[in-house]
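Posting here for the record, re: 2-oxoglutaric acid.
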Amino acid sequence: MIERKLVRAACAVVRAEADRVGIHARAPFVTEPSDDPRFLALQAACFRRSELDDLRASPGLHALLREVFGGDFVAGQGDVVRAVPPSSAPTRPHQDGAYVQRAGVVTAWIPLVDCALELGPLAVDPATFGGPVFPHHEAGLLWEEERLVARDMAVGDVLIFDLGTVHAALPNRSGKLRLSVDLRFAPEQSR
Ligand SMILES: O=C(O)CCC(=O)C(=O)O
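Prediction output follows.
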C-alpha cells in the first residue's frame, strides 16, 4: 500500500499539467502517445516536481519492493507519467525487458485515481512473472487476451512486476482521463 496522501499530491500535479499541455478527456491521442507532443510536454513538466520525487521515495512502496524482491531499490530507471483520454489506443502487450537494458529493474504501476476496469487499468499475465523476455515486433508482442488479468484498483494500490511480465492496458471506456505513473527501480547492489 502506498501512502494515499503522496498519491493524491502527485495526482494534483499530473492533472494540472495535463490540463496545461492540452490533454483532455475529449482530445484522445490519435497516434502512439509517445509520438504526441502533449505526452512529451507532460513528462517534462511533471518530473521536475517534488511531488513525483516524494512518490518515488514512498516508504510504503519501498517496503513492498523489499518484501517482494528482497533488498533495497534505487528510483529513476525510466519513469512515465500517463494521462490517457478515452478512445486513445491502449498500450499493447509487451514486456519491459524488451526496452529496458538494466538487469533486475522492476516496475511499479500506480493509479493516481481510483481505477475501475472501465478506466483502463493495467492487465498482466501472472504466469510470465520471472520468465524470459521474448522477441518483440514493432508494435509489441502478440499475446492471447484471455491470459491477461486486471482488477479494479484504488488510490494507494500498486501493481509491481518484473522485466519478464507481459502486460497491456485495458481500453479507457469511461468519460474521464486515466491518470497513472509507471515508476522503475533497480536493485541497489546492481549500481
Ligand atoms: O499505463 C499504461 O498504459 C502502460 C504502462 C506500462 O506499459 C508499464 O508500466 O510498463
